[in-house]
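Good day; I would like, with your permission, to put a structural problem before you. What I wish to show you is a protein chain and, alongside it, a tokenised description of its three-dimensional fold. Here, with my thanks, is the record as I have it:
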Amino acid sequence: MHLAADALMACEVQAQRGTRRVVRKERFAFAAGERAAALQSLREWMGAGGWRASQEWVLGVSDARYLLLQWTPDLADRKLREAFAAALFEQQFKQDPGTYAMRFAKSAYGRAQLVAFVSNDLLAELEVHAQTSAIRLASVAPSVAAVWDRFRSVLEKESGALCVIDGDRQVVLHHAQGDVEAVALRPFDAARIEAVPAMRAGENRLRLFSSTPMRSGVGGGLSLADGEGFLTARDTAYAFALCGVF
């Protein structure tokens, strides 16, 4: 499942003999404040398919906030790291960090650590949805983490910028061989070249992962391979939902 700002994208994936195949796909649009109706439609859709497995969620750009903790030896202490992240979150976003759950990227000595903040209310909503649907909630991952993990083998060999684009917003990560150096939320307008960030000194590769097809002339796109019921040219809207599966 992919939770975007205005829609739920659902894919039913079946595994058999070591392969995975998309057998059904559906999009449930909703207006601001009307997500509950879309979740109900999703439950009915899952019931029609006889789901008895698990559910994985990828949260869109609108439903997670990101910060970068610069490395210090103190970050090895979990409580100090959480306290520092909470203080930085409150300073930057002017919101109560106690109402958000923290998701830390894998730590590495000497490297900054990316932190995602997800609303506790949203997590509770997804948990209730899973219980009502009588299906196990296997995971809830911010889209940036899902994309990075999916293409880690590519990104950790490069220095550049990764743009995770979802609708009219994007999260831009500047990185060097796996070391995230900066993170920012920016608007995105596919009709304007300025929407794609300028490269920094020492960077050599711009990568894009989007929920909509990119216009011609913009290179560096990351995409899932065609096959097993998924076609990139036709099914881009479902790419985030499938990012952690394929």
